[in-house]
Amino acid sequence: MAFLRAPPPTGELPRRWLPPPLATLLIYVAVFARAQAPSSALFLGLRRRHDDEGLRRRPGANQSMCDIFTGSWVRDDSYPLYPSGCPAIDPQFNCQLFGRPDTDYQRYKWRPNSCDLPRFNGLEFLTRMRGRTVMFAGDSLGRNQWESLICMLSAAAPMAQTQMSRGEPLSTFNFLDYGVTLSYYKAPYLVDIDVVQGKRILQLNDISGNGYAWRGADVISFNTGHWWNHRGPLQGWDYMGDGGSYYTDMDRSVAMQKAVTTWANWVDANIDRTRTRVFFQSVSPTHYNPAEWSDPVSKNCYRQTAPVSGWSYTGPYSDQMKVIVAVLRAMRNPPYLLDITALSELRKDGHPSIYSGDLNPEQRANPDQSADCSHWCLPDHAVEEPPLEDDYDGAEKEAFDPSRCDVTQGKWVFDISADPLYSDKTCPYLDKQISCMENGRPDSDYQRWEWRPDSCELPRFDAAAVLEKLRGKKLMFVGDSLMKGQWQSFVCMVEAVIPQEKKSLSRGRSLSVFKAKAYNASVEFYWAPFLVESNSDVPIETDASKRVLRVDSVAKHASHWVGADILVFGTYVWWKSGQKIKSLWGSFPNGEEGYEELDSAVAYRIGLKTWANWVDTTLNPKQSRVFFTTMSPTHMRSADWRRKEGIQCYNETDPIMDKGYWGGGSDKRLMQVVASIVGRMRTPVSLLNITQLSEYRKDGHASIYTVPQGKAISGDEQKADPRRRIDCIHWCLPGVPDTWNRILNAHL
């Protein structure tokens, strides 16, 4: 393939690796383009082209002699290809989830000088790869690319039935409708590691264990590099085995050469190249040394927000790439070398830096020492070719597609004509606690703010159409009082179109059920504030110091969840009491004896794992859809939005307009726990990421216009002491939770 750059017999050497989506596109191009001899793909030198100015139409990338590796990064605001809410993304790579304030790094696409890259067509990929397996084998950069491909294909086929299994060393993602399997096999050194008497032996001459798992793949992409430099605690082995001898260490380039040669011999002997396409990716660039791009101020990639301009920058050439090139040259049947190097060197802005789920707060506070300048954010830059200018209006938004529309990015727009679908006077099912207008709130503007995502249109809530979707089904909300508020919002949004005699609502201590009899549907709420069992389920224990949780059990609650067609879970604020969480395993003993006090994030992780295990082992994804509502922000500190004289959310009548605002009421540690656990579940769980959009709504809480603990308070008494009576946790209805349900409906 002329467009796959390979090291020429003489002259310049390749540099390094491209961030995941573009590398994925090039595999896509290579798999579907006209086949050429692998030796041609490896050894064909590509000419630099600098004379394409004035060309009216450039050739496509599948035409002969196109050097796709010489070009420039071009900003395109119509990207990225998928939202950061893609559940396949590891917290390690989910930079937006962990607070990265800028998004420009997602909006660059690679444009070769002499040709056009084809648009990535996910449906074509799935159709033509029907019944086949694509595997990535190597280190975490391979996993980075594997997750990228999953998200790109999921965005192209959002309704496809899928199944994900994460394991060690093999993880798989299946598109069941197409019979396509995407696999990642962890083998950071490619060769085997054996454990002998508790010691890890890196077997430089043995690949039989790993190789057994690679057989049968139709497309397989290998990589290795970074782990050969690890020393100390990060080193993945205790001894190296070579020819029957064992070494505590040796020259790392020599060791890598032996290992890659073992891999090459295995590929030549075991891979049938008439049925399997083999790729090798070069070593990923890191950006820890700002002197490489002439930046005297920075210490590393932290706060880098744009690519290196021009084409002249190249980082230091890696000895590891010299090893790879030499070994591939000597192979009998060389693989396709994806030598997409120099263009990756330009992307100093694409790394997680401190916005990685793998870093703790102390590490994030020390970017000079802790920034991750090795891996790549997902989603990162775009890889598709844009439509022709005559056909494209950059201001035009596409219809809502949950796999492509990132609802976390947008703004609140005031619409005086946007009357809510109900009021606390017309809906008979609202609790007094959140009926703010009934409780004397004098303003109503908080009901007329509409959330508008940047990249798509959020559909209006059509109650009749929603009920048709729910015909014959059971929708259940599960969680705490915030989830109860979302349930009441949903009920009030649909109930008005149902005749009085065709609807009913029954309330219980744990289970409340709204029945839409005309549709044979029910919308239910189950009270389980921690999801796992506790001594504060029923009755509620108001003293947080006396609450005890069984973090290993949901059985009592889960018996009520079975049979629901749609489940919407959520839990957050009850874990934020400010105290250690008293946690039990097994049956409750007498009193409070035998519990262990855990940090809230630790207990939260254990509890969510218990819930996730129940979902994975009990629910059939073909019969039940599962959602998880992310944490609902609180607004307890007016100083967070620079109102030092304010009293929490009291007298707040407008949203916060600072893009990306994140206050002290949302714990990113717990957000990280949710992303980590949901991302590793076998059962597909859709995150309703309502946190960022709700962060702006300091004006939407019940404030003093509530009924605390069921006790009515006069307006004068409330205003006389707002600090004691204020509720900046729950939301007025109609209000912000109505937007949560618009997002839920869009997913349905």
TrEMBL record:
Keywords: Golgi apparatus, Membrane, Signal-anchor, Transmembrane, Transmembrane helix
Molecular function (Gene Ontology), one example: xylan O-acetyltransferase activity
Compartment(s) where it occurs, according to its Swiss-Prot or TrEMBL record: Golgi apparatus membrane
Membrane topology listed for this record: Single-pass type II membrane protein
Family: Belongs to the PC-esterase family. TBL subfamily.
Organism phylogeny: Eukaryota, Viridiplantae, Streptophyta, Embryophyta, Tracheophyta
One cellular component term from this protein's GO annotations in UniProt: Golgi membrane
Domain Trichome birefringence-like N-terminal: 65-116, 404-457
Organism expressing this protein natively: Colocasia esculenta
Top-rank lineage group of the source organism: Eukaryota
Protein's recorded name: Trichome birefringence-like N-terminal domain-containing protein
